[in-house]
Task: structure prediction
Amino acid sequence: MPSILMDVDTGIDDALALVYLLSRPEVRIEAITCTAGNVGARQVALNNLALLELCGRAGVEVAVGAEVPLEIPLVTTEETHGPQGIGYAVLPLPKQEISPRHAVDVWVETARARPGEVTGLITGPLTNFALALRAEPDLPKLLKGLVIMGGSFNYQGNTTPTAEWNVSVDPHAAAEVFAAYSGLPEASLPVVCALETTERIELRPEHLQRLAEAAGAEPELVLPEQPEGQRSGSGNPLVACLSDAIRFYMEFHRLYDQGYIAHMHDAFAAAAAIGRTPFGTRPATVHVETESPRLVGTTVADFRSIWKEPFNARIVTSNDPEQCFDELISSVGGLAAAVGTTVPQANGRS
Result:
């Protein structure tokens, strides 16, 4: 049974990643820790708690960690993910409270309690994990593995010409994390899902149609010719939530001439973390730029040992988008079918 400890900045694609993991009956989510990124850390926690309740999985611990990066001011991206981080979706305030534990304590205590059993999955900035490494430097040896969504290598960034969002929010944290893994055995190095492979996971309108079909719900049409901000009419609450979130994300991508699509970076990382989608990796030494004003947040990979420094990462170099979407749609569709067809009034729909 895969055991996952998530660190997220939910976020539309983080939301799909969480829902996907909840849809897998064999996966145990140990806890969810929250960092500031797409939106503020406490809003991230509320998003996660609301999604857990929507999916019938209240009771998973949700803890807040760092609310600002290690050394630079926080920048959030509501223009990409919406004012609450989940696009046009509106969820009721959760009944479950945010955990009194700090995210760092969750990481350290969980890893110490179950050495070699828990895989970390980080789909936001690396601030919480960097702080956890300061508290427990042996964390890389205590975890079963680590999967990171972040970085871009020989590929255009999505925040600056050279930098990916999660790393650019807190480059100093990313630098500390990669340094902590330097020289460990290759099998222990973090798997890094960077933009050159995560941007291949292009969710399109037909994928949402297939999701509704898999859920046994009425057809769900999210189309480029529809008015911006149109809300889902689905009677299935999970289909409606994901549809409203993803429509916002598609409109954002279209605004930046990427087409009426949505890159589901974090959903791929989640499927990779539990071994449900194929991918290839190549070891490298990763450097994170923290000084140059125009290049801050840039990730550079030395695959050929030109720097003569130990490897500190395994970078994903290939994946299978079609298989990944088949996996996501069938699994999330099954969960959506189980959630039912009664829409809570607090969702603002009838």
The CA atoms of residues 251 and 257 lie 10 Å apart.
